[in-house]
Amino acid sequence: MAGMVAIVGGGASGALVATHLAQQVNPPRLVVMEPSAELGLGIAYATHSPSHLLNVRAGNMSAFPDAPDHFLDWLRGEDDPSADAGVFAPRMVYGRYLRSLVAGSGAVHCQQAAVGLKVEADAASVVLADGESVRAERVVLALGHFPPVDLPRISAEALSAGLYHRDPWRDFLLPSDRDAPVVLIGTGLTSVDMVLRLREQGHRGPVTMVSRHGLLSLGHAACEPCARPVVLEGTMPSARAYLKAFRDAVRDGVPWRAAIDSLRATSNTLWARLPAGEKMRFRRRLFHYWSVARHRMAPSIAEQVARERRSGHLVVRRGHVRDLVISGGAGRLTIVTSRGTESLVASCVINCTGPVTDYRRVESPLLRTLFLEGYAVAGDMEATLATDAHGALEDASGACSRVLYAIGPMRAGTLFETTAIPEIRQQARDLALHLTGMCS
Fold this sequence. Notes:
By secondary structure, the chain is an alpha/beta fold.
């Protein structure tokens, strides 16, 4: 392939697509636009905490679909000679793996944020924060996840006091009083990470998690793989029919974890078959249950969380936040539950509700440009970006770009499974083949 590919974003998605492009027979020149000092880390793998583990076994974390033991071999050579395929490695170790891959790709690291874009017929100019531009024949958007949206009705006093933390990864500070109560909004894996981080840094106080459904992620456990398809060919494309197929499999003796794992290979196909109304129904009624079963904790972390709950140091509450104010010198969070309203006292409130998916609400000049210029439109249920099977952006006229592409979490507007390494590595490989094939 001749010319240049600009990769906007240098986390896991950007590192993987750079790695696969570099392995092509006639690789393009590569530039990765990422303001962070190091490539390959993003949010997930920039952690310095050894207690933050991968939630996928090492045997399924290779960067290469055709070399499933690549990460495991690297892990044994670089970190843990006794590691087996079932180990859940520290995320910071996986970050080192990604850094080594992108370093070998020959990509140039442009340590600036991309703030704008001008698309031509066969190329695009990416505008950088310093006002300079980089012209490339293809642009791959690999921006990963964006911080949560703010909670409603947070008082000015609570904000000025530093009580509320919108982004758990960028503005979190350990409370000065290590016995003070902490409230985490959300009960997903980010909240679990925050509990581990608090304890690792010596916080002794009680921690309360609050979410609308009060469901905590479940843990991994060994089980025999599912020997048959869970959703059979010809199953009606509806949320109810998919749920029935899953329940039937479990009733027939398939372990629920094995049933969930077996669906992974076909989930994007099954999702694409659903009419818009059924997708909405699934998101509204079933997604929270799917999430806690699909995105599981490493066994050692699940046990630590269970100990915290048994001791009463961690409490999980069902409800939604009404407001956050300062009262009597402390933060007071009002939550609405099935029994009415309740107040929680907190010295620190951390928003762990997960990344925003409606990109029109994100404070990003680059995303604003994409929408305002008609280069992109939102995907299903207004999530992220609409893309075709190769990741090409769909524009306001309904046409698919030959210049702009997305990868990873930025494709959640089209794909159901698109945020984990096994899916992103396949996208990276397929996109690299597609881009080099277009220009050969």
